[in-house]
Amino acid sequence: MALTLYYHPLSSFCWKALIALYECKAEFTPRLVNLGDPEDAAAFKAIWPVRKFPVLQNGDQVTPESTIIIEYLAQHYPAAKLIPSDPERAREVRLWDRVIDMHVHLPMQKFTIDALRPQGAKDPMGVESARETLRTAYALLDKQVSTWVVGDEFTMADCAAFPALYYANIAEPIGAEHASLLAYLERLRIRPSIARVFKEAEPYFHMLPLKPKSGGQ
Fold it and tell me: Which of 110-115's residues contact partners 24+ apart within 8 Å by CB, and which partners?
């Protein structure tokens, strides 16, 4: 397969897809998209009119959305076991992937969006609502995680978890009362696929409105 990933190195959903690609040891061409460049933005819009990344392309086949990209990879690289072959466990992995995306990933992005708003256009109520959602999600995940989100095998849910939790922990720090979740985040941080994604993103961290901690902490 001649895979091309259209992405941005700071995008949390792109991190999710990149982690999966590295877990699968898939050969692909990374194509950084600069939406601030009219020509680049137009070229990307011709591929995916919604203009949201990541997008994975294989010839004429275009696969958007991080979860669907991982579903595609799981089909073509089953040895990586990103989605279990057992239907019951596969459904559980898909459940926690959605929980993480909806209740960690999206609320976390509210903080970034608000930081980019000019004075007078801030949304403190929206930010506080996102904060409460994150706190609820932290407690839920703290009870769920063992070695990984679903048992002892690294899956799609874990691909989703690191970028969501890493950025969320900057916006709304995970408290010491969630010791299991903090230990899980550290296990994620040192996994080779994730460490690689993080290292590749570091040169761009100065562009973030919410400043990350060094070394993936």
Answer: 111/171, 111/172, 111/210, 112/167, 112/171, 112/208, 112/209, 112/210, 115/209, 115/210
